[in-house]
Amino acid sequence: QLHSDLDKGVGSVKYTLSGDGAGTVFTIDETTGDIHAIRSLDREEKPFYTLRAQAVDVDTKKPLEPESEFIIKVQDINDNEPKFLDGPYVASVPEMSPVGAYVLQVKATDADDPTYGNSARVVYSILQGQPYFSIDPKTGVIRTALPNMDREVKEQYQVLIQAKDMGGQLGGLAGTTTVNITLTDVNDNPPRFPKSIFHLKVPETSHVGSAIGRIRAVDPDFGKNAEIEYNIVPGDGGNLFDITTDEYTQEGVIKLKKPLDFETKKAYTFKVEASNLHLDHRFHSVGPFKDTATVKINVLDMDEPPVFSKPMYTMEVYEDTPVGTIIGAVTAQDLDAGSSSVRYFMDWKNDVDSYFTIDATEGTIATNELLDRESTAQYNFSIIASKVSNPLLTSKVNVIINVLDVNEFPPEISVPYETSVCENAKPGQVIQTITAADKDLSPAGQRFSFKLSSEASNKPNFTVHDYRNNTAGIETRRNGYSRRQQELYFLPIVIEDSSYPIQSSTNTLTIRVCRCDSDGTIQSCNVEAIFLPVGLSTGALIAILLCIVILLVIVVLYVALRRQKKKDTLMTSKEDIRDNVIHYDDEGGGEEDTQAFDIGALRNPKVIEDNKIRRDIKPDTLRFTRHRPPAEDNTDIRDFINQRLQENDVDPSAPPYDSLATYAYEGNGSVAESLSSIDSLTTEADQDYDYLSDWGPRFKILADMFGEESYNPDKVT
Predict the structure, then answer these.
(1) Band of residue 609 on the pLDDT scale cut at 50, 70, 90
(2) Using one digit for the tens of pLDDT, what is the confidence trace for 466-489?
(3) Which GO terms describe its cellular component (predicted)?
(4) Residue 716 — very low, low, confident or very high, per pLDDT cuts 50/70/90?
């Protein structure tokens, strides 16, 4: 209650309240000043409130006293139970742990005021989980309460923990949580076989490396503590079998190390030991952590394929062996109780296999084609053997045939085939070391010999020195060589091998003479260098070449001027050609040379301009078909032409046909153009002019004047 000294109890004073919670949590009676809580209070929500109060005159509304501030504290009561904020809990502890082994610490929180009374003092206890575990009532630490708890007996435990306030007294509030505790495994159990003997049946055809059976030892432990290693105890069958551990099932997988044969041995017995990989020294006193069992294996008889006597066959044959020659044999047997015959055949894979054949019954291998070691030096193929009683059962073996070499190729010089010698070489100087190569397969110790051919051994230029180690040296036999006298020497060398039959060949070594310095270093081997003066500088050579070029230019200009002068002397006027005498002394170039000289001055200008037919070249065949034979009186002209033609054909000094000149020219005024009077008759009375009718329309007037027969134009073509 608030009260002002100025309040006389007559209702002249009014009380007001402001601040934290005023009007919502607290209210004040304006007349009496009593403060009331209008809703429930929670200390855990708000522990105190700060308020301000004032007395005001009812009439004037003016404060009668200054505003005063006061605090209302909420007093705590035990209205909150302890709570496990991190629960439920999960914990683990190794099995076989001693009493008092730490497991986990739990913690409960009480929202009540820890400074006021015992409302927030918590005490822990176990409601469920005894007698296996215990808890400290003050700290909440959980520990084991029993020794040697075995995971294999019980692995999971659920413990119920209670936390109670008021120090655990009657009337206190309590909260609970669950703790799930797991016993972790330790290697406290050895592996054990469920039975002492394991029986297995294995076919004799089982492949090496295949699994033929499984055995298992039981270990109640978990994880790596249950990992088992299996080993075969040395003894019967230990060298034929092997055992490994399946990492997923921890089973022992028995595998075959060597092939089984029912006919050799029908049963095997051996022992297998199982042991843990990860041991715990705390439990050595329990006993050995391993166990032993016996494995008996019975071999089952199976129908097996034939077995070759060797895993691989190697044979040899000479390359000149005739076709059909037997070079070897393969052998396979049926080892089963009821022995069966065996048939052989080749495993055809490529054309190479066709070089050999095999006898199906005896297994002998023979050549089928001629062999060439230089083409193929080794053949590799497979032979298949099958049982006659069961052809599906087959076995295969590889056969390697090496082709032996026969000495059929002569040796030859290895590169180089050309060498050089200095002009200043001394006698006995080695200018080149040569070796030989043979296409044949050289056997160990084969030797080559070198010598000069018989025709070269007498020449005093070079010799061959055989070093007896498949090499030879080319030596000089005289003092100095001259490139001007002879630039190249060809040295025939005979090379023989040591195989049978002996093969030899003659190889020519080219030796070039070169200019060298005093140390023997080659300076020049060019052919052009032979003719150059020794000691000329580069400038002198350039000057010589320049002079040669100038002389050539002068000669060319001189020849061109002379030809121009000759052209000027030719005919300049085509109209008065008769008075011009043309002289020329150019030699013709033959029948096909039409440009050797200008014979235009000898041509008929009329023919050139109108007919465009050149008389200085061999004309194309142009003939006029005549319907009547030529007159017999024309034979004198024909004989004259034939005579002159024959004379020119046999005369080597006569000009070619394309240089034939026109001997006479009548002029442009004649209708018939030119009429030649060569070899004409003495008198006109002796002349028969009937042939003029055969010469065409241009001679029509003459034919009418001198001929007795009239001219018929239809007969002219």
Answers:
(1) very low
(2) 998 889 999 999 888 888 888 999
(3) adherens junction; catenin complex
(4) very low
Confidence of residue 217 (pLDDT cuts 50, 70, 90): very high
For the purposes of burial, counting CB atoms within 10 Å of the CB of 229, is it exposed (0-12), middle (13-18) or buried (19 or more)? middle
Residue 433, beta-bridge partner list? 473
- Predicted pLDDT of residue 583: 55
In the chain, where are the structural domains located? 13-73, 83-184, 197-300, 307-404, 412-524
CATH number of 307-404: 2.60.40.60
Q: Is the pLDDT of residue 328 over 70?
A: yes
Q: Which helix (H) or strand (E) holds 609?
A: helix 605-610
The pLDDT tens digits for 160-192 are 999 988 877 777 888 999 999 999 888 888 899
* Predicted pLDDT of residue 338: 65
> In 411-500, where do the E strands start and end?
412-413, 418-422, 430-437, 449-452, 462-466, 471-476, 488-496
Architecture of domain 197-300: Sandwich (2.60)
Higher pLDDT, 636 or 404: 404
Return the top range by mean pLDDT from 510-519, 520-529, 649-658.
Answer: 510-519
**Helix or strand holding residue 366 (H, E):** strand 364-367
DSSP string covering 670-692 = -TT-----TT--S-STT--GGGG
Rounded to an integer, what distance in angstroms lies between the CA atom of residue 472 and that of residue 458?
A: 19
| Interval 461-466 mean pLDDT | 91
In angstroms, rounded to a whole number, what is the distance separating the alpha carbons of residues 394 and 302?
14
> Would you state the CATH architecture of domain 83-184?
Sandwich (2.60)
Return d(Cα 357, Cα 223) in angstroms, integer.
63
Backbone torsions φ then ψ of 302, nearest 5 degrees: -130, 155
3-state helix, strand, coil in the chain (%, to 5): 15, 30, 55
How far apart, in whole angstroms, are the C-alpha atoms of residue 292 and residue 252? 12
**Does residue 442 carry a pLDDT above 70?**
no
The C-alpha atoms of residue 488 and residue 473 are separated, in whole angstroms, by 19
Choices 2.160.10.10, 1.10.3720.10, 2.60.40.60, 4.10.400.10: CATH for 412-524: 2.60.40.60
- In this prediction, residues 338-366 reach a mean pLDDT of 84
Residue from 483, 484, 490, 485 nearest 511 by CA: 490
**Is residue 517 predicted with pLDDT exceeding 90?**
no
3-state secondary structure 201-228: EEECCCCCCCEEEEEECECCCCHHHHCE
User: Which DSSP category does 564 fall into?
Assistant: H
Between the alpha carbon of residue 382 and those of residues 347, 364, 441, 506, the distances in Å are 5, 13, 26, 44
Which three-class secondary structure state does DSSP give residue 93?
strand
pLDDT of residue 294: 92
From residue 447, alpha-carbon distances to 33, 405, 468, 701 in Å are 142, 16, 8, 107
Q: What are phi and psi of 643, to 5 degrees?
A: -65, -50
Distance of alpha carbon 258 from alpha carbon 204, whole angstroms: 11
Of 210, 201, 269, nearest in space to 235 by CA: 269
Q: Which helix (H) or strand (E) holds 51?
A: strand 48-57
Looking at residue 547, what DSSP letter applies? Answer: H
